[in-house]
Amino acid sequence: MTTRCKRDGDDWIINGNKMWITNGSLADVAVVWAEMMKV
Fold it and tell me: In angstroms, what CA-CA distances link 16 with 6, 21, 25?
């Protein structure tokens, strides 16, 4: 899993990928960890 994020004004831009999330189709919430990109 690789995920990067950067701030864009008041928002966050998150880019990354993951192959699958076990029981993801049943989930109400997803938690994402990301490494901040160096600007």
Answer: 12, 14, 19
Torsion region of 2: left, alpha or beta (phi above 0 gives left; psi -120 to 50 gives alpha): beta
d(CA 39, CA 23): 35
Where do the domains of the chain lie?
2-36
Q: What is the pLDDT of residues 2-30, one digit of tens each?
A: 788 899 999 999 888 877 778 888 989 88
Task: Quote the pTM value.
Answer: 0.52
**Residue at token pair 């701030």:** 7
CA proximity to 12, closest of 29, 36, 38 = 36
